[in-house]
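User: I'm designing a mutation panel for Putative membrane protein and want to avoid disrupting the core. Could you give me a predicted structure to guide residue selection? Please restate the sequence first so the numbering is unambiguous.

Assistant: Good idea. Sequence first, for numbering, then the predicted structure tokens:
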Amino acid sequence: MIDERIEAQRIADNLQEPVEKAGELAEKLGLTPYPVNYWIVDYDEMNELIAYGGFQERYPHWRWGMQYDRQRKQSQFLGGKAFEIVNNDNPAHAFLQESNTLADQKAVITHVEAHADFFANNEWFGLFTGRDEAPDNRSDARPESGPDATAMLARHAETIEEYMTDPEIDRGEVEKWIDHVLCLEDTIDQHRPYAPVVTDERTEDLDTADVADHLDDLDLTEEVRQQVFDEEWLDTQSDDDGSVSFPDTPERDVVGFLRKHGKQHDEGAGKAIEMTDWQKEVLEIVRRESYYFAPQKMTKVLNEGWASYWESVMMVGEGFAADDEFVTYADHMSKVLGSGGLNPYKLGLELWQYVENTANRREVVERLLKVDGITWRNFRDTVDFGAVRSVLEPPAWLEDVPGHLDEIDPDDPRIDAKALERARSGAIDVETYPWTVLTYDGLVQRHYSLVQAQNRGFLGRIGLEELERISRYLFDDSRYGSVEAALADVEYARGWDRMREVRQSHNDVTFLEAFLTEEFVDANDYFAYEHSQKSGEFRVSSTDHEDVKKKLLLQFTNFGKPTIVVADGNYDNAGELLLAHRYNGVVLDDKRATEVLKRVFELWGRPVNLLTIDKEYDESDVEVARRRDREPDPTEVGRRLRYDGAHVTVEDVPWEDVEHLAATDIDYDTKPDEWLR
């Protein structure tokens, strides 16, 4: 044990300088992260942290053990490797696995600093903390507001542990109750700030069925009931048409609705009864944690891409990976970016680079369109793109600071004069950390995207339609006499400034909607695929950018899960719950839907209904389509599933009852009219 502590301390000592320097570099680059506490952990501890979602303490439940086992098997049998985990907290906490190489640790540290910046500045994370406005500039002050998630989750763990050890409460019942709620953990309104559910029993409206149940609880004689609370009186408790319906508009926060109006089912009495205090508290705990983790699920591509981008700038662009570490780091990145399936790191990184490049390109084009003799019509024939890139290249001293240290002008705005003086005196290791003598302006030009090798064709790819659009909105009528004069006024920070604006306000859905353009899809060879009813296999369905966008939006809307809302809390005036599936071209899995209804029943106490749209295929149409090498056209029909505590029934409903559930503003059906041959 002593030897292990000594080894851990040695590793920590070696990482002290990279941690400090990464924080300094992140701020130089314009990031404003939460402070980060770094912890060295072993293999088993890392697996535990991953299972716990990045925290050291969670409420007792079997799900954590299942996730731990899955993570351990993934690393053992599938070759997965845990590089890092960081949580959204102020200060943030990042965990480094002690067995990783120094190159891996540096990559993790730079990656984490960018994550902490995203946590601190993205407004979707601010919804949980109540942060009104995220910083949008390069202030030296770090964001002050932030979650105290570690303490919150520890309190939750302690509360549920107390319930589980209470001799008057069955531990199995607590776990079962958690299971019921977890089945619905993503059915919250992630677009609204978190607020605890507050119920006022004195003012909460009761439907007719509720009144009848409360009369049963009073244990009145039948004579008194008939004389005072007869059927006519009960009918007057309803509204004019004999029906009480709520909520007024569909409620997205299903868990919150159940917390406010739900009950438990008493199997012995065969009716709904009030939830116990511990049931209400556990339900609200799971709901609160769902709201806390929601922004991370909503920004997976955005956040991982952001972290990968700045990690690359620091590790490669600023040489944070030493020469003898570079091959190891390259292998590290190839594993992260090269994994199969929908890779949020790769997609996010490519989209962020596209945001940067398009903003920088627009800045340059706006300048060039003000040059005498250049218009949007002759732009591509007149402008020498190679010459433009040469002018935009950073000066030699900016690319090689150590080699030109004595030549640098300390009064240049791209230079930190005090740091330059210290570097010349030997107080700063400028060979290892050349960025220390540069200001933000210097770093912006040093990393200007349009002159980088992989982007050298980007400026010339601009189309006539975009040129015309930019020209149309050029309100400044000042002119330049030459291309060189126009380029002298280029704002090199345009791309990074735009990236910070996007980082502040977007989530994955809005990010994809805004920036997954035809140019991006074509340049990166993205495509959509669908399951073929004809062949029974998945196949490429389209390379059109609109189809690709719809496919991706479908996977990220509502965390990629079906959107379910509360349509009526007194369905058919019988106290039943009616849920509605907002259909987007993808039908529900009947088996899973049935299991969810059974869970919801336990939280409502009465029968639960689910309205949805299903697809039917005529066997003869399928056979004809197969012979003609086409996909059959399905018929969409309305369905209602119902669970009464004992049986599940499914019945067809008229199309007019479900027509409003079909997506209209965005068509998520990515299958084109004619499949690619």
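For picking mutation sites, this is relevant: Confidence is low (pLDDT under 50) at residues 132-143, 201-208, 666-677. DSSP finds 28 helices and twelve strands in the chain.
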